[in-house]
Amino acid sequence: MSTGTKRLLNRAQHWVGWPQGTRTRVSCYPLSMTTVDILFRYASQPTEAVTFALANTREVYGIRRLVFDRAARTLRVEYDATRLDAAEVTNLMRQAGLDIEEVLPLIPPQPAPEPAPAS
Fold first, then answer.
1. What is the pLDDT of residue 5?
2. For the residues 34-50, what does the mean pLDDT come to?
3. Is 83 inside any structural domain?
4. Rounded distance, CA 90 to CA 88, Å?
């Protein structure tokens, strides 16, 4: 590492508030990313054109991952909640041509607690 690069890194660490000499990668974003998953159930299997359109949604800044479960007919989308919200992600999937039936909860419904026996 050249002397100029070391000097620049030390200035960046000082500006961000890191102790000098630490080897931390300098990020251009001051806030960390908040990743959120949303789960969609779709009505019909996506065609090849829809699949390619869904793949292109990864180019939208904030969409991180798409995971299909063809047996359950679901699509899980991981996105950055600091950039997008659930309505925008849903709209992107519909614009790509996915026939969304419903948005499913990620946590399955919990059974009702049994009443405590009277003593």
1. 55
2. 93
3. yes
4. 5
